[in-house]
Design brief:
The complex is a heterodimer of chains A (278) and B (346). By secondary structure, chain A is of the alpha/beta class. Chain A contains ten helices and ten strands. In chain B, helix 4 runs antiparallel to helix 10. The chains are: A alpha/beta (278), B mainly alpha (346).
Chain lengths: 278, 346
Amino acid sequence: MSTHMSTPMSQPAGTAILTVEHVGMRFGGLTAIADLHFDVHEGEIVSLIGPNGAGKTTAFNIMTGFLKPTQGRVLFRGQDLSQTRPNEIARLGLARTFQRTSVFADDTVRDNVLIGLHRHGDVALLDRLFPTPRGRRAEAAVRERADAILDLVGLATRAGEKAGSLSYGEQRLVGFALALAVEPKMLLLDEPVSGMNASETQGFVRLIRKVRDEGVTILLVEHDMPMVMEVSDRIVCLNYGRLIAEGPPAAIRSDPKVIEAYLGKSAAKLEHKEPVHA
Amino acid sequence: MTRFIAPLFLVVFALVPLGLKDPYLLNALIITGILTICAMSLNLLLGFTGQLSLGHVAFFGIGAYVSALTALGFDVSLPFGLRITHEGGAPLVGFVLAVALTGLCGYLIGRLSFRVRGAYFVIVTISFAEVVRLVALNWVELTQGPLALTAIPNMVLPVPGLGDVALRSKMQNYYLVLAVAAVSYLVIARLVASRFGRAMRGLKENESLALSLGINATRTLTVAATLSAAMAGAAGSLYAHYIRIIDPDVFLFSYTVTMVIMVVSGGKGTLAGPLVGGILFGLLPVALRPVMAPEAQWIVYGAILIAILFLMPRGIVPALESLALRLRPAPEAKSAAKPAEAGANP
């Protein structure tokens, strides 16, 4: 959808699922985000880009309730998230992955996903303490669901291994599987392909497309520019906590402000896919 | 392998009194059993959620006093001319009330302190235990203070066909403790394997990630604290009706320390850990007593504790587990053993 936009600032059709309304975040004297304002529409894949320190992860932390904005507010499906705690936001259907610590390292991959399926299989205390048919059915359903998610992300063969012993790229997939386990309406992915090689990245792009086609809206922060350009319907670009451009990949690629702030300095580096760490 | 420890213990300890007629040893086993229940309850918090309760004895002591006072009855005047008189009732009612009220205490402490957790929870629990001890010592009208509550009746259980049976002999009390310990173990085992147990593990390992998955930290920890306190309260009730005399010393900090030693040496966060640690450190004084002077006993006790923590920093049960993995010749054992070793020295 929304591939035929004429101007960078035009909005695609569809209802906004997430609205970032004039959000500002100050840490003491440091302004991490100033007056950030954009929408994400249902079914879109939107990327949030910008140089290191531009405020992308801070924006994620605000959207998922880990930080309270000092100004403005975030609306998810029309609901104000200002007073909502992270676990409640997950329950509303807005899930996220993390840039670094993204798995329960001491647990097996399957147990990770089972922890992620916390929202499912809730039964009464008695069904939990005694092996009642209802408790057993719920547990079996949750395990089936876990295996389905592991199949989807391609980790079925790794289910019995400790998550901490997997390669970094595979751990990113476990983090993604955890977020999927929340059965979100919308997913926020913080540098999902960092640490993945080219073929893993290609596989991941197919995976997010598949997830999007099942009706999950996606907002991602990523430094891998070829991947961002390939997968995004729309791109939002930040610099020094301010929004400097918004539009489809083609428009962003040629936007002078973006080139100056970001691509201009480091385009050559990014073309060679050198990993950039925040 | 370690999953057979608990059933094995149950069978062995169910058979022990049949061949053991020495009342001194039976008494030691009963006290050890009661402390092991406390250790299991502490492990639910310390081992599975990572929250250290250094006032766990408070729940034990409250359970003992509630149960004893329910059975004995009391007559206290309160401010504003209020006066509460209780005639005394069935010890079993005392047991139920002890479990309910200590559970409530655990809930309130959890609500108060789990928003910030960590060191704050440790301090709140220590203070709580000390405050409760001072109340028990000074509210003489209710608790008799240092004069102690005496002549507490034995537990009375309704037995089908026999009517109400008072558990007067050591043997009867022994099996009661064993039964409560088995039930406590099963409750914890079921919880840990359930969705609730996964939530606790998630919070302990990576709280931000757990929150992002919709796990409610405050509620999960509060439920764990409630259940943990209720179990310690049950142990306190068993203690009161077995020993039949309690004074404010049931709130001594050294009991908490003993529970922590049992959990940490056995292996916190494992089901069998508090059983192994509890029985080892519960019976160690009994084993040392005939062979050495009292002063030397405590030195050896300390030396053994230090040796265990030095050689098996994660506890006896996890050490046995990695040993079993290493001994097993299966090819998958190698890959599974590596992360376990890496995890030992984070």
